[in-house]
Specification:
By secondary structure, the chain is an alpha/beta fold. Strands 6-5-7-9-8 form a five-stranded parallel sheet, sandwiched between helices. β8, α10 and β9 form a beta-alpha-beta unit. α1 packs parallel to α15 and α3 packs parallel to α4. The radius of gyration is 21 Å and the shape is globular.
């Protein structure tokens, strides 16, 4: 059943969402990513990073329906981990991820073959960022690699080097470069693979020298931040601490006071003493909520940066998902794909 939002006002939509939640009780879990707008987070059962949320729902024995208020790869991860009796839905199937779309399975397979033709078979470990589709997670699992999050990326890459001499890191080149820097990899030992170009735009000698091959992907939210913005905020707020996400460029991370995942940023603000000024480089909805949650701290955005795909989740399509429970926008992952992806995820979980 489709809902004509013109027929309902804001409070009526919220009332119907709450009525639906009461009707399904513990059978329904609504997951909300940190970057969702406040009105969505307020109606969810859990808020957090994507993988953390997926694990929570999968571990809930009472839960039959999972509605993931986030982007598509997140709902896929929930479907990979879900119990056989659980159904995963996303309120808006058009809520994709630009970064995840920058690495497609066919282009990654082609890159893998080209790299192996130069450096030799059996010399590369693939590491795929959580912000990727299920088929790429499965590719990694089936090629001896693993998944990483922004929190454990350094640990994952260190593990990968324990398996093979080189690492193919995708799809986010900036997270990969920041991890490489933290692990002491020299800049000249990291090259960027640009899909569509012969050898990714590299000469064979560069690939042979490289220890990390970085896929040419990036987050449009986090690459909007610049060194100039940091300098401007330091000039205006000299007492401020600046914290950014590791999907930012190397130059921005180097100039910040701290860098970490969305969960790290939440913890950073929570543990800051009252009266602190914290400038944050990440998605604006999270920053705005932190400012409301901690009024005794000055929480500012480094620059306004909205994720339009996250913003595609709204009250109307959340209500539609609830009122068409188990049927509308169901996210399914083929069993063969799921098996490979679980291998990659299990290797990541074993790191802990």
């Amino acid at each position: 059943m489709r809902i004509d939002k013109a027929q309902l006002n804001h409070s009526e939509i919220i009332d119907r969402i709450r009525t639906g939640k009461r009707q399904f009780g513990k059978q329904l879990v609504i997951l909300t990513h940190h970057y969702q707008r406040k009105e969505i987070v307020d109606l969810g059962d859990f808020v957090g990073d994507s993988f953390e949320l997926s694990r929570k729902a999968a571990a809930d024995r009472d839960c039959r329906y999972i509605i993931f208020c986030g982007v598509h790869f997140m709902a896929e991860s929930a479907a990979i981990l879900a119990q056989p009796n659980q159904v995963v839905q996303i309120p808006n199937v058009e809520a994709g991820c630009w970064m995840a779309g920058m690495a497609e399975a066919e282009t990654v397979r082609s890159a893998w073959e080209q790299i192996e033709s130069v450096v030799g078979m059996g010399s590369i470990s693939p590491v795929v960022y959580m912000n990727s589709d299920a088929e790429l997670k499965s590719f990694c699992g089936n090629h001896g690699g693993l998944v990483c999050t922004s929190s454990n990326a350094a640990k994952a890459v260190r593990w990968a080097f324990g398996q093979k001499e080189k690492v193919l890191f995708f799809p986010d080149q900036h997270l990969g470069r920041n991890v490489g820097h933290d692990l002491g990899i020299a800049p000249e030992e990291m090259v960027v693979w640009s899909p569509g170009n012969v050898l990714g735009g590299n000469d064979p000698d560069a690939l042979k020298r490289a220890r990390i091959i970085l896929w040419d992907g990036y987050c449009l939210v986090h690459t909007r931040f610049t060194v100039e913005q940091i300098e401007k905020m330091r000039s205006e707020f000299p007492e401020a601490r600046i914290v950014v996400h590791p999907e930012c460029t190397r130059e921005v991370v180097a100039r910040a006071d701290a860098c970490g995942s969305t969960s790290y940023i939440v913890k950073y603000v929570k543990e800051a003493p009252p009266g602190s000024t914290i400038v944050i480089g990440t998605e604006i909805n999270l920053i705005n909520r932190l400012a409301l949650e901690y009024p005794d701290r000055k929480v500012l955005d480094l620059h306004y940066s909205l994720c339009p795909n996250m913003f595609k989740i709204n009250l109307v399509n959340l209500l539609q998902a609830i009122e068409n429970i188990g049927e509308l926008n169901v996210v399914k992952v083929p069993e063969a794909t799921k098996a490979g992806a679980r291998l990659a995820l299990d290797r990541m979980l074993a790191l802990a």
